[in-house]
Design brief:
The protein is α/β, with parallel strands linked by helices. It has one domain: TIM Barrel (Alpha-Beta Barrel), CATH 3.20.20.140. 42% of the residues lie in helices and 13% in strands. It is built from eleven helices and nine strands. It has a five-stranded parallel β-sheet with strand order 1-2-3-4-5. A two-stranded parallel sheet has the order 6-9.
Amino acid sequence: MKINLHTHTYRCGHAIGSEEEMVQAAIASHFEILGLSDHIPLPHLRTHLIESIPTSIHRFHDVLSIGKAFLYNGPGMRMPYSQKQEYLSTIQHLKEKYQQQIQIFAGFEAEYISEYLPYYRELLQHHEIDYLILGHHFHRFVTGSNNYTRYPISSQRVHLYVDEAIEAMQSGLFLYFAHPDIFLKGYGKWDEVAQSETRRLLEACQHYQFPIEVNGGGLRDCAYTFNQEKLQGYPNVYFWQEAKNYDIPILLGLDAHEPEHLGQEAIHQLEDFAQNQELTIITKPDFQTYFKHWQ
């Protein structure tokens, strides 16, 4: 594994390590390319959170979480918008400092949320960032009650997840799809709905040749009950056994939240999962076509 484009920093509020510490860890593991892709900071987040309250009012814990996010303007899930420029400036400095040792890209992991699409487009058109990856954790609002990984989600939510993912593919905004199987962690079973919606998602990925990521973050997590078995929340073995039947580019992403997640143990764990599932892994996504689109 010589490339990792899914890397977070302390700025998101649930990771450890600065941008430079992540770069140094990647160099120590002999990566050739590192993409820093922290959870995207959102402008007008407080207004967004206020608008989300009707969807969260039935859960006391969610209301408290919204209050905390409102107070700190982001920490817990994503960096405050006020830190965006410092994050990007730091990465630019690191690109130059370590250019003889590693190639560095600046990006964000982002949900497909309609109100923020013009903002995403502006980031790419103005070349503030190199890329976006689709990490579709939430429906409409970035709050707990709208989290696709929170068990149990309904079959209607599963359908929404796939609908929104397909719209994201069509938008041209995203380089690839991070942990496309996370909705199964929230759904919790491999029934007819899970199977049909997984196939619908994979058919769209194949049609658009939209790369999907086997995500190492879930391999570090505890096991969950899925389909009456104890399995990782993701990567989901049922999903990936289905995915290998399609002509879709598949890549590996460590989803690093601290420097050691870029180490050899994490790399081998992820590579072993892909090998055990008999997945054919691409070296890297089609940067050239993606970058050309935003020139």
